[in-house]
Amino acid sequence: MTLHVVVPQESEALPFTVEPGGAQVASKEVPERIHRILDGLLDGGAVLAPPGADDTVRAERLAGAVHGKELLEHLRHGVPEGADSVLDDAFAAPGLEQETPVTRGVWPAALGAAAAAVRAALLTARRGEPAYALVRPPGHHAGPGWYGGYCFLNNAVIAARTLQEEGASRVGILDVDYHLGNGTHACVQGDPTLAFASVHSSRPDDFPYAFEPGPGLFGAGSDPGPEGFLALVGDALSYLRGQDVEALVVSVGYDVLAGDPHGSWSLAPEVFGPVAALVTEQRLPTVFVQEGGYGLPSLRGAARALALEASR
Ligand SMILES: [Zn+2]
């Protein structure tokens, strides 16, 4: 098997975030993340795939099906004349204050990421080989009508919708980012053709600061260690198999690793080898979509370990 990697054009979409009280802090969601992950993926045997001419048009159409009109309009045109950014609680997840500003570069960057997710899904559906949308900004905190947590458009759900348009009737989304994919969870609610399973930290002081147990949600209240983490990933995949899914989207977050500035766990980068092995053992068409992962020193090794297994 070949793991195909799709990388959108580089952007500086999110130079800062805003803390409660208004202080601006430099974003850890930086372009260097992508450079290091790409190095690791290629070293692990993955190959770069070019974008397709119609990916952006398709991504925009699917974004319109996944998200509300007001949200998309705000991302496109929400920054007032003369300003560089806007911070609007009206588009925050329920119960949260907005901490992620919309800057002028957000819309093209978010749409570029969604287009790469579309391309990766098309490669998977049409070639029968796995693909990896190596995107930023990430997407799993973006809900039907909100953005936040560095996320604007839900790339994973857009990838799942693409797989469905290519013939998969039920698609499972496995989210192994440190943080609960609250946006993805909300996007799939009430849709029997999509299933969501997540392994994440359920500590109340981790974004998105609320955890209500439910089907498919495998939260760890403290560091699960490698064996505990892999057991939870196995449970999440078993849950999705029980939903009779025909294809998988995997939201990959390397912020589960030791040293991540947004995480608290102790996992080594190599854990992504067995994670990928558990996924490939399902023998389902699979699209990997980049979510978090901000500890720069760990990214290359984690991506290499994943690619080595996903390319077998
Ligand atoms: Zn995360």
From TrEMBL:
<comment type="similarity">
    <text>Belongs to the histone deacetylase family.</text>
</comment>
<dbReference type="InterPro" id="IPR023801">
    <property type="entry name" value="His_deacetylse_dom"/>
</dbReference>
<keyword id="KW-0862">Zinc</keyword>
<feature type="domain" description="Histone deacetylase">
    <location>
        <begin position="29"/>
        <end position="306"/>
    </location>
</feature>
<keyword id="KW-0378">Hydrolase</keyword>
<dbReference type="InterPro" id="IPR000286">
    <property type="entry name" value="HDACs"/>
</dbReference>
<dbReference type="InterPro" id="IPR037138">
    <property type="entry name" value="His_deacetylse_dom_sf"/>
</dbReference>
<keyword id="KW-0479">Metal-binding</keyword>
<dbReference type="InterPro" id="IPR023696">
    <property type="entry name" value="Ureohydrolase_dom_sf"/>
</dbReference>
<protein>
    <recommendedName>
        <fullName>Histone deacetylase domain-containing protein</fullName>
    </recommendedName>
</protein>
<dbReference type="Pfam" id="PF00850">
    <property type="entry name" value="Hist_deacetyl"/>
</dbReference>
